[in-house]
Write a structure and sequence with these properties.
- The chain is α/β, with parallel strands linked by helices.
- It has 2 domains: 36 residues; 89 residues.
- β4 and β5 form a beta hairpin.
- The radius of gyration is 28 Å and the shape is rod-shaped.
Length: 137
Amino acid sequence: MLKKILTAENCALTASVILCAVTSFFLFANYMVKSRMRGIPVIEPGTQFVQFKPYLTDVRELGYLTNKDMSEEKNDGFFLQAQYMLAPTVLRLNDTDHKMLILDYSKPVYAWFTMKSMRAAPKYSSEYGPVLAEQTE
């Protein structure tokens, strides 16, 4: 009886059915992932800074303070992305001589400490991390 079940035709048929089932599963999974991703917008570089633009309509220059490594090898380009998104406002890297500042630190506690030490108040805090602050003096 076992020889009748394990014939070459039955093994080939079983393998074909299993292969079709697995292929169908992966096609369905791929379709579901792509259909859910259709509504997700593509995020443009610098999006984390575009929310500051309404607060900078009359500002010609502002400081950009960060504790991130700005060397050519390790720079993620956030300073340039901010400069691009906020143009025509000019950003000055690590310059505290401006009334308005963008604080882009690796942790929020560093931004809050910097604001406290510079007597600055947050004007807008981006959901991505950077903070737009205004010096009171």
